[in-house]
Amino acid sequence: MVQPRSHRALILVPIVALVLAACSGGGQSQSPGASGGTSGKQDVEIFSWWTTGGEATGLQKLMDKFNAENADDHVFNQAVAGGAGSNAQAVLKTRMLGGDPPDSFQVHMGHELIDTWVTTDYMVNLDDLYEANGWKDQFPKGVLDIVSFDGHYWSVPVNIHRANVLWYNKKAFEANGLKPPTTWDEFKTAADKLKAADITPLALGDKDAFASGQLFETILIGTLGAEGYSGLWTGKTDWAGADVTQALNTFKMALSYVNDDHASLTWDQANDLIISGKAAMTVMGDWIDGDYIAKKFSDYGWAPVPGNDGIYDALSDTFGLPKNSKHPDATKKFLTLLGSAAGQDIFNPLKGSIPANTTAGNPPAGEKQYDDYLKSAQADWKTDTIVPSLEHGAAAKPSWVSAFTQAVVEFVTNQDVEATQASLVQAAKDASAS
After folding, report:
1. What is the pTM of this model?
2. pLDDT value at position 52?
3. Residue 24 needs a FRET pair 20 to 30 A away by CA distance; which of 89, 124, 267, 353 works?
4. From CA 386, how far away is CA 284, in angstroms rounded?
């Protein structure tokens, strides 16, 4: 039975871009032989960068289920590891342009697919799947809008991640009589107390620049609100405005409390500072929950980034159907499994994400269950205002994301509010012109 969606607002942007940093694995690609052979079956090739950990395990479980239930078809993951998906995207481009597409491929929700392959007529729309499976009533309207173009649906979302989460060490907070800050003024008060106790208030690992960009993204959300933040990408909010100036000053204040070695650490190495108790807080996407679980750390809590209560900064992975797919009918059957509540409840608890399908949320007995964080995220997903993540591919085209991130990187070094705001204004003008 289809569950009714809660009343919710969705702030959309017309352009959705690339980048899903921190959500890809390492490892080697699989072939049909590596997957156990395909005797008597046609091989259906799924192309992704999920090669290790829970993401690879979750996808394999879906493939195992499909293969067991379909006598004539054998789905396998022809994966290309590394580069937060950039390595896979390079190989995919060569194959698509060369007329040798996989049967389906992993792609970030929105215009990573649409701008690259839909507008150039390389993809088949999936309207029939959405109609046959009732997905127009099961995926939130905002998700439907983002996977749509020119009146058609082009990909199937399999998960949702959240970018605007404040994670904290419970013992450090309890020892210093602290509660999660709900405003940046409260953050500063807590940070001063932690600093006096010789604890780094805010762990940051921006060896990969997205981490500082993501921190500033969440500060923009908290300062401008959902509508004002999303207006930055549609031209409705002025980058030269006082709210952006305030956000930059808040960012400058937050940076004064980070670890000195932030530029040499990755996001997960920064997270190790939380685990060890050397730092008390960090701002990162909810893949960090999986990092805690993998490292057997349980003394952590979570809360919205200050000012972000009631707002869900979202990103997603999807799969589509290329033209010239060798097995379009079998591929559609597999895409049906990916979009189903049953399929998403097998995959997402292992991936460390929540289902995009609002009727999901009850994994079968014997499968991995959603942990406490993921249960809380599912509840928020159904009630919060959803905004698209910039650093993770849902708010602006790649050139704009790059210009934004470069401005942030320079700001982390020079902390010049006026110059950085001018750079952000120029980036918006350049994006509009192009």
Report:
1. 0.84
2. 80
3. 124
4. 17
Q: Could you give the 3-state DSSP secondary structure of residue 119?
A: coil
Which of 111-115, 180-184, 194-198, 208-212 is predicted with the least confidence, judged by mean pLDDT? 111-115
Residue 117 DSSP label: I
Euclidean distance between CA atoms 404 and 350, whole angstroms: 32
Say if residues 391 and 368 touch (Cβ distance below 8 Å). no
Give 134: exposed, middle or buried? Use CB within 10 Å, 0-12, 13-18, 19+. exposed
Separation of alpha carbons 383 and 176, rounded Å: 32
Name the strands in the sheet holding 317-319, side by side, starting at the edge strand that comes first in the sequence: 73-79, 42-48, 104-108, 317-319, 156-157
Please give the Cα distance from 233 to 430 (Å, whole number): 12
Q: State the amino acid at position 143 in one-letter form.
A: V
Tokens, residue 175 = 């020892």
Do 103 and 44 contact (CB within 8 A), yes or no?
yes
Superfamily of segment(s) 42-161+315-379: Periplasmic binding protein-like II (3.40.190.10)
Q: Which three-class secondary structure state does DSSP give residue 254?
A: helix
Please state, in angstroms and rounded to a whole number, the distance separating the CA atoms of residues 127 and 309: 35
Quick one: how far is CA 345 from the chain centroid? 18
Residue type, 295: K
HSE-CB at 219 with a 13 A cutoff on CA atoms is 24
Residue, of 6 and 289, whose pLDDT is higher: 289
- Dist CA 129 CA 143 (whole Å): 15
> What pLDDT, on the 0 to 100 scale, is given for residue 283?
98
Residue 255's contacts (CB-CB under 8 Å, 6 or more residues apart) are 204, 412, 415
With tokens 């929540």, the residue in question is 354
CATH number of 162-313+392-433: 3.40.190.10
∠ Cα 394 399 400 (to 5°):
60
Indicate if the alpha-carbon torsion angle 38, 41, 47, 52 is positive or negative: negative
Cα four-point dihedral sign 228, 229, 234, 239: positive
Residue 17 contacts residue 116 (beta carbons within 8 Å) = no
What pLDDT digit, counting tens, does each position of 59-74 carry? 999 999 999 999 999 9
For the record, the structure tokens of 276 come out as: 């060890």
What residues does 149 pair with on adjacent strands?
152
Residue ranges of the domains in the chain? 42-161+315-379, 162-313+392-433
Q: Fold match between 42-161+315-379 and 162-313+392-433? A: yes
* 327, two tokens: 């097995």
Residue 109 contacts residue 144 (beta carbons within 8 Å): no
Q: Are 334 and 66 in contact (CB under 8 A)?
A: yes
Q: State the pLDDT confidence band at 29, using cuts at 50, 70 and 90.
A: very low
